[in-house]
Design a protein that fits this description.
The strands form 2 sheets. The protein has a 4-stranded parallel beta sheet. Strands 1-4-5 form a 3-stranded antiparallel beta sheet. Helices cover 33% and strands 20% of the residues. By secondary structure, the chain is α/β, with parallel strands linked by helices.
């Protein structure tokens, strides 16, 4: 892993009315190749967003993005850059966080943060929480296909409660 090149996350998916911020750790290979958040076909993110907001995975990506933005939901990653072989969060090395001071300045209505999985939660605690200690943050079950310990229905229930 010593020669693994840096990979970079995407710009935030957010509109001026954003109130909820969903943070992952870093896009996986399928997402990076597609240039889309949560592009892996077995990732539960878009099925959950479909069940909660109507952003069904069968819709074009731009339509799904618009639906989330219209519901005041922003999507981003804690990390801006890292080295990682493959898509597993456990392989992340040499991480660099995104500029959250600037993000929260641009989107001051954010009142809740959902952390998609354990690595996002740990990285948030390390890099972001000190900047906004008053902001309510909640870890939710990872939508990654690598997290198979929980059935879809239970993940959906937990995400739905966190988004309400």
């Amino acid at each position: 892993m010593g020669n693994t090149r840096y990979i970079q996350s995407f710009q935030p998916l957010a509109g001026p009315g954003a109130k909820i911020l969903i943070l992952g750790s870093m896009p996986g290979i399928a997402s990076l190749e597609a240039g889309q958040y949560y592009a892996h076909s077995r990732n539960a993110f878009w099925p959950i967003m479909g069940d909660v907001f109507g952003a069904q995975p069968s819709l074009p990506y731009e339509a799904r993005r618009s639906i989330l933005i219209n519901h005041g939901v922003a999507v981003w990653d804690v990390l801006k850059l890292c080295r990682r072989e493959g898509s597993l969060d456990s392989n992340i090395r040499d991480e660099v966080p995104n500029d959250f001071a600037k993000f929260f300045e641009m989107f001051p209505r954010i009142s809740r943060v959902l952390l998609n999985g354990g690595t996002a939660a740990r990285s948030y605690g390390k890099y972001v929480q000190p900047l906004v200690p008053e902001l309510r943050a909640l870890a939710v079950p990872s939508t990654s296909p690598a997290y198979a310990a929980m059935r879809y229905g239970e993940k959906l229930d937990r995400w739905r409660c966190a988004l309400d």
